[in-house]
Write a structure and sequence with these properties.
This protein has 268 residues and is α/β, with parallel strands linked by helices. It has one domain: Metallo-dependent phosphatases (Purple Acid Phosphatase, chain A, domain 2). 29% of the residues lie in helices and 20% in strands. It has 6 helices and 12 strands. A 7-stranded mixed beta sheet has the order 1-6-7-8-9-11-10, with no helix packed on it. Strand 10 and strand 11 form a beta hairpin. Helix 1 packs parallel to helix 2. It is globular, with a radius of gyration of 18 Å.
Length: 268
Amino acid sequence: MNNYHTYSFPDSKCLVICGDIHGDFNLLVNKICAQYQLRDTVVIVAGDCGFGFERKGAYDNMVRRNCKRMNNANNWILFIRGNHDNPAYFDGRTFVHKRFMAIPDYSIVKANGHTVLCVGGAISVDRSYRIEAWEQNQKKLRKFGHDNDNTDLLTPNYYWSNEAPTFDKDTLTKVLIDNAIDTVVTHTAPSFCELQSKSGLKSWAERDSILLYDVQQERTSMDALYNALKGQLITHWCYGHFHQSWHSTIEGVLFKMLDIMELYEIRW
């Protein structure tokens, strides 16, 4: 029995990858349905979608607001987890609608003739700030007699400790037995891809003693994923996280870093 999820879209005629959206769900729908007038298109958001900062009802309301437009255009949006997402939304059950789905790590997406492996997660370089800001938020709530339900996995927060990507060799082995992957979508990237500069980390590392180590481990997990996929005929590897745009062909694979809200169509 498979312990990974497969999402198939036999009616799709286009596959597009999107960079971080940071909660701008309505803007993304407007961009794909109105600005670019895409139809019959599967859009995969490469993490930092924005799930978890609001109560679940806010995301369900977003679906209701946009479902007619998405139905009329026959478009779908799939979300993989970033470091600015609550992983609890990405279990394949919590946020699943006809046109909007938050999908688990190591999910397979089949669209427009492509077979896509999706793996989320990364390290928040600003995690010390986010943890401190949330603690201050909670102090204010308690001052006025309010408090969050910490037993609810979907309770809003600013940071989630299980944000890091994982290299799941066992699940990947099962995935590769059943699928010929041609495209990979992750939130972060292997160590040989941009961004490689650590200059922006210095100020954050001053207040977070293990940040540099954790960031190195994040990229190492992506290196392990890349090495495990070397036998596959991968043509594209897309990722977000770094808020810049870049691309390069490395060992026959086109690596594409996507800026915030940048769209990139996967073509043969």
